[in-house]
Design goal:
Largest sheet: none
Number of strands: 0
Number of helices: 15
Strand content: under 5%
Radius of gyration: 22 Å
Helix content: over 70%
Order of helices and strands: HHHHHHHHHHHHHHH
Structural class: mainly alpha
């Protein structure tokens, strides 16, 4: 059986949550709330802990990892039907992440390079990663988290020290509460990606530590996003970030060390590519693993190469340009992720709560039945 350490699980969750949000979330929050966008980032803690309680309860009451736990709680027919939908969802999530990466590179680093080149190179690296196994991927995510999180905090700290102005955060608390609620709801579609604990939680050293691991990953994510959102507002103010496509990257390009070391944003891009690789490889792994389980296959590794063409084609067809991709990001992705990462887990939780005996305790159920017969 696959075994990963608690720290590796923590790193996997951080990497799955943070890299995309690092570029996307501050822009969305400032567009809605301007200089008060950081407040919504702080309030992420509320939906975050809600989802932690949901996932932890499902995890404790299940005997098998996702996707087997769907059939365990919802029945074979409905469970397998939903499971196949999850395969399509994770394939789409992988393709979307690939396309987001390539459009970012096309816009900011290598304009004019055919998009198929970027996608093809990354797909090749992802296939190699999946074939290496989950143990190797877990160790890779340790490296990505250890490098990426401190680097992001240091870069943001430098820009605050050089360009930041506290006055740009004023006036505090002057916001529209409807937009504030929308901003908090928007952050929920990021923290709900803790969903993958339903698979990886069964492989960690101590399943009972899943709640604390999710909580630590959530707090790490919140610290990074709050700090980044504050830095963007203190650098550009409350209006300008809403019209920038990638305000985080625009902020990083202003970093210089000693007034003579400049253009270090290429280092940021290198580290961010590692993060994107981590996000993409986990979502693709989930698609392959779900396929293996639902089709009762011997292994999942060969499925990476078999599905690579589908992943590549879908990533190209998602949008015609970066503007269409932003529409997909802000309208379509929250709906899709809300369905698969929030609504369906809540239905599973409801099914668990409605059971006569706690799920995951067949021995206890048998003992209770025997006592009832004896009485």
């Amino acid at each position: 059986m696959v075994r990963i350490s608690n720290f590796q699980l923590y790193c996997i969750l951080i990497v799955f949550l943070t890299p995309l949000a690092f570029l996307q979330t501050p822009q969305i929050l400032t567009a809605l709330l301007q200089q008060n966008g950081w407040m919504a980032a702080v309030m992420t803690i509320i939906p975050g802990y809600m989802m932690i309680f949901v996932f932890n309860h499902i995890l404790r009451k299940s005997q098998n990892p996702f996707p087997q736990l769907i059939t365990e709680h919802l029945g074979t027919f409905l469970g397998k039907g939903i499971g196949f939908l999850y395969i399509l969802f994770f394939v789409f999530l992988t393709s979307y992440t690939l396309r987001f990466f390539t459009d970012f590179i096309e816009t900011n680093v290598l304009p004019g390079t055919p998009i198929s080149i970027h996608i093809g190179v990354l797909i090749l690296a992802l296939v190699i990663g999946i074939k290496s196994g989950i143990g190797s991927l877990a160790r890779l995510h340790e490296i990505i988290a250890i490098i990426g999180v401190p680097f992001a905090v240091i870069m943001v700290g430098i820009i605050v020290g050089q360009q930041g102005s506290v006055e740009k955060l004023l006036p505090l608390g002057h916001l529209d509460y409807q937009d504030f609620a929308l901003a908090i709801g928007g952050t929920m579609f990021v923290v709900c990606k803790l969903f993958i604990i339903l698979t990886f939680g069964f492989w960690c050293e101590d399943k009972s530590k899943a709640f604390s691991i999710m909580a630590k990953a959530l707090w790490t994510y919140i610290i990074v996003i709050v700090f980044t959102t504050l830095a963007i507002i203190m650098t550009f103010g409350g209006i300008i970030p809403s019209v920038l496509i990638f305000p985080t990257f625009s902020m990083i390009t202003l970093v210089n060390i000693g007034d003579f070391i400049q253009n270090i944003d290429i280092i940021f891009i290198g580290v961010w590519i590692l993060g994107i690789y981590g996000v993409t490889v986990i979502s693709w792994f989930m698609a392959c693993y779900c396929t293996q389980v639902l089709l009762n296959l011997h292994d999942y590794k060969f499925l990476a190469a078999a599905s690579s063409l589908v992943i590549g084609i879908v990533s190209i067809l998602i949008s015609a340009n970066i503007l269409e991709l932003l529409v997909v990001t802000r309208i379509l992705m929250p709906v899709i992720q809300g369905l698969f990462f929030i609504i369906i887990p809540l239905l599973i939780l409801l099914a668990i709560l409605l059971k006569s005996y706690p799920a995951g305790n067949p021995v206890l159920n048998k003992q209770n039945n025997q006592r009832g017969n004896t009485a």
